[in-house]
Amino acid sequence: MRRVSRLSRFNIASLALGLAFLYLPILILVIYSFNASRLVTVWGGWSLRWYHEFFNDRAMIEAAWMSLRVAVSSATIATLLGTLAAVALSRGERFRGRTLFSGMLYAPLVMPEVITGLSLLLLFVALNAERGFWTVTIAHTTLTMCFVAVVVQSRLGSLDRSLEEAAMDLGCNPLRAFVSVTLPLIAPAIVAGWMLAFTLSLDDLVIASFTTGPGSATLPIRIYSEVRLGVKPEINAICTLVIALIAVVIVVASLASKLSSSQGESAAPL
Amino acid sequence: MSARRIFARPARFAAIAPYVWMVLFFLVPFAFVLKISLSQTAIAQPPYEPVFDLTAGWDALRAAFATLSIDNFKLLASDDIYVFAYVRSLTVAVTATALLLLIGYPIAYGMARLPKAWQAVAMVLVIVPFWTSFLIRIYAWINILQHDGLLNQILLALHLVSQPVVWLSTDSAMYIGIVYSYLPFMILPLYATLAKMEPALEEAAGDLGAPPWQVFWLVTFPLSLPGVGAGVLLCFIPIVGEFVIPDLLAGSNSLMIGQSLWLEFFTNKDWPVASAAAVVLLVVLLVPLLLYERLQKRQLEQGR
Predict the structure, then answer these.
(1) Which of A9, A120, B193, B216 has the highest count of CB atoms within 10 angstroms of its CB?
(2) Are the CB atoms for A183 and A72 separated by under 8 Å?
């Protein structure tokens, strides 16, 4: 009760304004994607015309398909590697090069994407690797496994270690204790990590531009080259579809993290 | 205690795969950037030569090292466009981060004052835009800010302006875009520290006669400094290298370093100069990057 009374009008106003600022532009975009008019800003009634246009645009569909494939593969590899990294960092105590390891895991979180993208391109060129699906997937895995590691690590950090210890006292070897006790407890964070990696990959423009080859553009690359030429109503429709897809992913992820918070401990941070 | 020790050993092996991956795809690429930034422009024109030909043996490697030059860095320092781009990147990042702090703080503060159940809802609401595509959110602003866009329509309808204002391709548009994109990165760390704060401290200050602004300035704000630090770093570092937002929303008359890098790479195809620019950018960001890493580590240790 006390906390409620501490909410001043100023608090409520700043919150409301802040949320409106965050959501109104997206809302407007979604509404205009159903606009019948060719002029983006003139309202010509409701229509699915631009969705039609998108589904008949081969290049766009191909780019969307490429993006989805990259996002699923890189998120899966990133979840595997990121979870291993989180386990090593929170359960492995001290090992050689631990500082370097954690440094390498945090740096990509804030590193400007131009640098990461450029350096990976130089590597792929040096290796003479054909650029396309796999190079983008590797690049996205490198970036997103760091996010997975942070999410899973914070879950592992809040976990009661005595559960693992009890399992081992009862005769489980460490691997068995991990698989049958720890893994189910951190599963929601792993799911949330996968979802985060998936959306980050689906969203990425800069790193994908550097690491992809001719003829294998991802959806953001296509959207970007269209947007640079000016606003096209078809882009509104594509963006709305992407938002819808991500919304589904968020709902699943939040269900997963709700599952995790109902198991006692605090929910995953993302 | 003993069980914990047993767990520690195999858990270390978990590091092998991600470790190798990060060395291979994060650390080694930087070595390439460094190497190419030191090579001569002429020999680096595409089609591109292999960087380190390890099969050629030690002598070839020595010969390669002999040809290293710092010409590209000299070029960067003498080229006004680059010097200007670095200065502009830093100015934009400082201004945008200050704006983010000013706008984000009241929002985070409001969130922390909500009843507990509502706090969780507000947090989800702030995170969701972070999940939705970054490019899409910038595109949404282009819709609003363009010449016959919604903002001008509203301003005209309210008779606040007599003719459409030019928003797109201005610095204001760029700042709107940056603030909009990075706001969740500022709010979340601020909220995390503000929500943990003991309300009794503020109440005590109030009971002792401090007016609200003094309570805020002498108690709340100093206690929230760790969150301020994290939020500032989390926004400042990526904004310095920002490319997409200034490219789509700002005018074409002045470039930020991320854009110059991109142009050098894709339009001029001068990879050595682009690499040198990336190295300088990295050096500029090294201090805030290390600061961020230390802050992150401390927070994780406190969280245990």
Answers:
(1) A120
(2) no
Nearest Cα to Cα of residue B179 among B108, B97, B242, B88: B97
Q: Work out the widest C-alpha separation in chain B, in whole angstroms.
A: 78
User: A29 in contact with B at a CB cutoff of 8 Å?
Assistant: yes
Residue with tokens 């797109």: B168
Q: Residue type for A55, please?
A: F
Strand partners, A5: none
User: In whole angstroms, how far apart are CA B52 and each of A128, A129, B20, B55, B160?
Assistant: 12, 15, 20, 9, 63
Residue A100 confidence (pLDDT): 84
Q: Which residues in chain A have their CB less than 8 angstroms from residue B136's CB?
A: 26, 29, 223, 239, 242-243
Question: What are the angstrom distances between the C-alpha of A166 and each of A35, A49, A155, A170, B2?
Answer: 61, 61, 19, 6, 11
Say if CB A219 and CB A64 are below 8 A apart.
yes
**Pairwise CA distance, residues B228 & B190, whole Å:** 6
Helix (H, G, I), strand (E, B) or coil at B5: helix
- Among residues 120-159 of chain B, which lie with CB inside 8 Å of chain A? 122, 124-129, 131-137, 139-144, 146, 148-150, 153
Task: Tell me the chain B residues in contact with residue A3 when contact means C-beta distances shorter than 8 Å.
Answer: 113-116, 199
A87 in helix, strand or coil?
Answer: helix
∠ Cα B249 B251 B257 (to 5°)? 85
**B176, closest residue in chain A (CA to CA):** A21
B50 — contact with chain A (CB < 8 Å)? yes
One-character DSSP codes across A174-189? HHHHIIIIIHHHHHHH
The three-point CA angle B138-B140-B146 to 5° equals 95
Is B115 within 8 Å of A3 when comparing Cβ atoms?
yes
Range scoring the smallest mean pLDDT among B52-61, B78-87, B172-181: B52-61
Give which of A69, A70, A78 is closest to A197, Cα–Cα.
A78
Q: Does A108 touch chain B (CB under 8 A)?
A: yes
Q: Splitting chain A (270 residues) into consecutive groups of 10 residues, what average pLDDT does each group show?
A: 57 87 87 77 76 85 93 96 90 77 85 89 86 93 93 84 79 79 86 90 91 88 85 82 84 71 48
Q: Per residue in B217-273, pLDDT tens?
A: 888 888 888 889 989 998 999 999 888 898 888 877 678 888 888 888 888 778 888
Contact A224, B243 (CB under 8 A): no
- Length of chain B, in residues: 304
Best residue in A81, A119, A140 for a mutation probing chain B (most B CBs within 10 Å) = A119
Q: Which residues in chain B touch residue A22, judged by CB atoms under 8 angstroms apart?
A: 125-126, 129, 180, 183-184
Whole-structure pTM over 0.80, yes or no? yes
| Chain A nearest-CA residue for B299 | A154
Beta strands in B5-128 (DSSP E): none
